[in-house]
Amino acid sequence: MASSYRSALSFPAPWALRGEGAMLFYRLPRAFAQEHGGIPERLAPSFQGFVACVMLADYRESPVGPYRELLFIPGLVGTERGRRFSITRIYVDSQESMEWGRRFFL
Predict the structure, then answer these.
(1) How far is residue 37 CA from its own chain's centroid?
(2) Residue 106 and residue 88: Cα distance in Å, rounded?
(3) What is the pLDDT averaged over residues 51-63?
(4) How far is CA 68 from the centre of its chain?
């Protein structure tokens, strides 16, 4: 019951989040990151690699309730504003977080 009620509410971005997390940095071979990193076709030509990151977050407070998140960044991407990190994979353990995250970030 609570889940369907929460899904009917509106949770506009940006969200104020409270919790803790960890970031793990890796040097991946560029070819490995390109093959397994989930890089979208539109970013593939500007993918530069360098360092990858796995982020683990445990949000105790959010507009959609507590949830955990796993993010993967395969490396740097060149943009008109310089080199930037791009998240290519996000996994969450909350239906509400998944639904609202897709609305704002896809």
Answers:
(1) 13
(2) 11
(3) 96
(4) 12
pLDDT at 34: 93
- Close Cβ partners of 79 (under 8 Å, ≥ 6 residues apart): 46
pLDDT digits (tens, 9 = 90+) for 72-86: 999 999 999 999 999
20 with 58: CB under 8 angstroms?
Answer: yes
Dist. CA 92–CA 26, nearest whole Å: 22
Q: How far apart are CA 16 and CA 18, in angstroms?
A: 7
Give the largest Cα separation in the chain, rounded. 47
Tokens of 42: 């539109």
- Residue 43 carries which side chain, given as an amino acid letter? L
In this predicted model, what pLDDT tens digit does every residue of 25-35 receive, in sequence order?
999 999 999 99
